[in-house]
Amino acid sequence: MSIRIAVLPGDGIGPEVVREAVELLKLVGEKSGTIFTFTEALVGGAALEAQGEPLPAATLALCRESDVVLLGAIGHPRWDTLPADKRPERGLLGLRGGLGLYANLRPARIFPSLAAASSLKPELVENIDILIVRELTGGLYFGQPRGIEAERAFNTMIYHRHEVERIARVAFDAARRRRGRVTSVDKANVLEVSQFWRKIVLEVAGEYPDVTLDHLYVDNCAMQLVRNPGQFDVILTENMFGDILSDEAAMLTGSLGMLPSASLGSGTALYEPVHGSAPDIAGQGIANPIATMASVGMMLRHSLSLPEEADAIDRAISRTLESGARTREIAPAGAAWIGTVEMGQRIRDAYAQP
To answer: Where are the domains of the chain?
Structure first.
């Protein structure tokens, strides 16, 4: 089997963590007999500097022609003064829209050996296993009209029936493979869009009598995530709410550097860590590569029909953490820690073991 992978290292720590993930994929290829071919392209700030736009046409074309996309991270404060359509983040939004990636899967689960690194008490996080299903191509981030005028600025939150139906089915299908519960998050006490969202989710729920559905307002959900995160199975929500809640859930597990994500839809699937470009530590060799390497596991499971290899990556990460290996941000105060390359190598060594 031959797989074409578009590699978009991006900005900040993106190239550092992507490098470790690509080396892992090469090892997977050797063990499984799969031929991976890697083609790099520019996106985000790197593309802005080289070509004057955050998503060059050639990058989007490469992604469309590839089997999967591996992305690092995008953004840097030095580009924050640019017009909105020229900022690095527009490259990521362009990828999502251009590839039809409407479903973002963000798992948040705790590794037992990292319970002490969570911002919550260990007894609250020991059983965390949450999947956030975030709608990715609608809502405020894509709605029109939008703009900045002399005395006001405006964005439009809009959802169509088919957008809510398809993301709801992704969540219910996922719940069927997990513990059978979906929590739909909205702000239906204030927003008409949320009232519409809830109505459509309820209709879709009728197709899944074996899945339990409940609803939470987004502010209550944010509170419940820190009060009792173990109550959640699958969280279904719209674009902006999902962006915020998934970062909150990430910190429950100890670090943004731990969490992978998959963006799925009608085009080439994209896999990336949840964290950002972290320009303050870029180039220092201290970034945590685990989220990007775990994203490779999601890639193997969701897009490449290699579930055994995906499970092996999960086990390798777990064994490496159980051995005591820590990058700086998840190491206890005063404890020894290792850098990006060494963590990547230890995980690959654990993967290579029978």
So the answer is: 1-108+255-354, 129-252
The tokens describing 180, both together, are: 């059978």
Separation between Cα atoms, residue 312 and residue 56, nearest integer Å: 36
Q: DSSP readout, 98-164?
A: HTT--EEEEEEE--GGGGGGSSS-HHHHTT-EEEEEEE-SSGGGT-SS-EE-SS-EE------HHHH
CB 320 within 8 A of CB 287: no
| Crossing angle of the two packed helices 14-32 and 307-322, in degrees rounded to 10 | 120
- Specify the CATH number of the domain 1-108+255-354: 3.40.718.10
3-class SS string, 238-288: CHHHHHHHHHHHHHHCCCHHHCEEEEECCCCEEEEECCCCCCCCCCCCCCC
2 to 58, 84, 190, 299: CA distances (angstroms): 22, 38, 50, 15
Over residues 129-183, the pLDDT tens digits come to 999 999 999 999 999 999 999 999 999 999 999 999 999 999 999 999 999 999 9
| 98: pLDDT strictly greater than 80 | yes
Residue carrying the six token digits 């409407």: 102
What positions carry a catalytic annotation? Answer: 141, 187, 219, 243, 247
Cα within 13 Å of Cα(248), Cβ side: 18
pTM of the full structure: 0.91
Contact by Cβ (8 Å): 37, 3: yes
What is the CATH superfamily name and number for domain 129-252?
A: Isopropylmalate Dehydrogenase (3.40.718.10)
